[in-house]
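ESCALATION

Customer reports they have been waiting on this structure for their group meeting. Please prioritize. Original submission:
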Amino acid sequence: MKISSRFRSVAVAVIAAAGVGIASAAELKEGVQTPPGEHEVALRRELAAARAELEAMQRAARDASAQAHALATTVAKQAQTLKEQQQIDEALE
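Update from on-call: job pushed to the front of the queue and completed.
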């Protein structure tokens, strides 16, 4: 797809803002066209990388959630123990 020079810089800015790689935007700016297969391969690579990053972030979120639940359980047990100790102290007074 050939873009006129008038709109080329706007198109490059829009593409860059949309998250397309800098190399792709630069190629568009220079009027270089890549074969459709190469572009698809690059997009598939970017998608795979994004999926891997999402999976890692989800795993980290699950780990953090599990740690938070464990800490909440520990704090609840400590609060119960403290309450029981206070009741014993009051009974001894």
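Sent to customer with the following note: The chain has three helices and no strands.
Escalation resolved.
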